[in-house]
Amino acid sequence: NEPKKPDVKTAIPGPKTLALTEKLGKIQNTGAINFFVNYEKSIGNYIVDVDDNVLLDVFTQISSIPLGYNHPRFHDVMKNSQNLSHFINRPALGIFPSADWPDKLERALLSIAPKGLKHVTTMACGACSNEQAFKLMFTAYQRRKRGEPTEEEKESCVYNKEPGCPDLVILGFDGAFHGRSMGCLNVTHTKWIHKMDYPHMDWPCAAFPKLKYPLEENVEENKQEEARCLEDVRRKIDEYNARGKFVAGLIVEPIQGEGGDNSASADFFCQVQAICKEKGVFFHVDEVQTGGGSTGTIWQHEQWNLPHPPDVVTFSKKMLTGGFYATDELLPREAYRIFNTWMGDPTKVLLLEEMVKVIKDENLLSQVKVTGEYLRSNLNELQVNLDKLW
Amino acid sequence: NEPKKPDVKTAIPGPKTLALTEKLGKIQNTGAINFFVNYEKSIGNYIVDVDDNVLLDVFTQISSIPLGYNHPRFHDVMKNSQNLSHFINRPALGIFPSADWPDKLERALLSIAPKGLKHVTTMACGACSNEQAFKLMFTAYQRRKRGEPTEEEKESCVYNKEPGCPDLVILGFDGAFHGRSMGCLNVTHTKWIHKMDYPHMDWPCAAFPKLKYPLEENVEENKQEEARCLEDVRRKIDEYNARGKFVAGLIVEPIQGEGGDNSASADFFCQVQAICKEKGVFFHVDEVQTGGGSTGTIWQHEQWNLPHPPDVVTFSKKMLTGGFYATDELLPREAYRIFNTWMGDPTKVLLLEEMVKVIKDENLLSQVKVTGEYLRSNLNELQVNLDKLW
Ligand code: FES
């Protein structure tokens, strides 16, 4: 009785969802509820709601389900009694990891590490991964400048004061979304709903390319558009540096998600990295939404052929665990510097380990490439035909 | 073969921990590693390391293990096949919760809600719980001031500008620790290791009482000390308000943890709340470390007998899930306002539901009170005898 095709039986939201929404509405804001889900019945790409409607799910929990619902190999992980103690004894991973932790990191995360990056640290979500990455960049920036910290820096920072808390900034892009904690919000530039009423820092925001489609017909125009944005990146860095608000890092999504599904060329990103190198700015690629295989490579930025690895790559969502890969230079030098209670959750890494195997065993990256190309070329055709229609 | 008493067989860290630390050191900073743990063998209050040393664990994963290791009732939760699909299909809870979600919130979280609070929203850790709570307070503060937002506010905030991003602040205390994301760091005042090199906002920091012990012998002095701190709270609010950096909220831990295990009297906290009410400042109690029962009540602040509930109470650690309770006034009015991909993790709430039952079934709160009183009075005696010794 597995659902094999979409089957809509009620209005959506259906009567059961409506009743449950009312119930939940007494407890919390329910404005974002689409429907309540029967997760036991959902399977693969089909999500089944509590009113028994079966829908083709292309949204997959805000792009956070890597292998579809109820993948049998994930069931196997849960049935393995060796894994049980991980689920009921959540460790403080930074202090008391289990014996199998280094191997798990190796198999789940280093086996798919972006080229050139061999350090990885887990976190629990995309926001804390980005927040910690900012901190890595701030510290590495200061370290380059001054070497060992002074006593004055150590004392002043406890009360939010200079020189211990320097006026450093991270450069983001217009249309970018990097999370909803206060550090991440400084470089998030999407909708008021994410930002209004909250104090923000004066961090720079550069233009992100708005390409024209079809790409083949707008080559020159798109080149100019990207050049304009690169010029803006350069200008923003110079402007802020000149004002003593030094740009320590630049963060960019390979494909803007929340900001409107905006892409740029591989060359654009290579140029951004080159500007960063020139200006002493660390280059942070936020693969929270793009990482995990849905672009045909585990990391979208692998498709850019960068001459050097990014300084830091963050991930979460379909990777099941949050975290970051970083270069030697960015790795924290002191204990407890990049730290929190849990430092991620080993149960998510257990599932990730299996996911990585499934991707390999079932050759899913090639499948993504073939299916993606099919979808894209047919969308192109639809677009052309639609143009004729109008 | 369950460990029944401490049993130390090797130096700590032992040889197996040393070998694993070296291995992990190639992947990440290991400066905080104490030892690697055998979680299958650990039981109750006894933690067993990979070198087979058995230790009495009074640190319990930075105070995040509520019922000791491998509690049989947690094993039962995992064996219940009805729970399985929660573990392998992590939902975006704000959009697509499962049918049992409202009941789970009811049983796990509302059944133990602080008096007067009936709204609860889950988050994934203490830091995001606090960050979201700040945002609730900022919005409620602005709402009181202006009612509906203007178009100018909606547009300006996207680029971090006023009036959409007003210059609001949260008042914290000296010695406070509230997390390591950038919002939380603004009100964290502990050690340089948490803060140095990171830009911070100019948010106020008030003195927290440093009481003298034994309390019975220092009544007058401690009263004065608390009065001094209350005066400082009042002064900091007035000072910042006068500078146009309006104090929207005040955050306080019931017992400072990271800052040195500092307590204050119930009266102190009642007075702090009274000052907040007088000044139109929201009162945020951070129970991330104190919540969950280890003080003899589920929430430490229940012992203050506040005349009004706090405006927001955050939790995590021993509560297994992060989240916040909030008053009607603080509840977000718009969809997607307080939101992120996962909005917590239902598998943690499954375990919490069971934990709440165990606390009740086994009468654990009384046990904490009796054991806590025993420990405290004997520590007092030790202190007196030690004084004589010197
Ligand atoms: S900030 Fe990432 S889990 Fe809380």
From TrEMBL, chains A, B:
GO MF annotation terms: 4-aminobutyrate:2-oxoglutarate transaminase activity; pyridoxal phosphate binding
UniProt xrefs under PANTHER family: 4-AMINOBUTYRATE AMINOTRANSFERASE, MITOCHONDRIAL, AMINOTRANSFERASE
Organism of derivation: Dimorphilus gyrociliatus
A single GO cellular-component term on record: mitochondrion
Listed cofactors: pyridoxal 5'-phosphate
Name under which the protein is recorded: 4-aminobutyrate--2-oxoglutarate transaminase
Family recorded in the similarity comment: Belongs to the class-III pyridoxal-phosphate-dependent aminotransferase family.
InterPro entries referenced in this protein's UniProt entry, alphabetically: Aminotrans_3, Aminotrans_3_PPA_site, PyrdxlP-dep_Trfase, PyrdxlP-dep_Trfase_major, PyrdxlP-dep_Trfase_small
Keyword annotations: Aminotransferase, Pyridoxal phosphate, Transferase
The keyword Transferase is annotated on this UniProt entry: yes
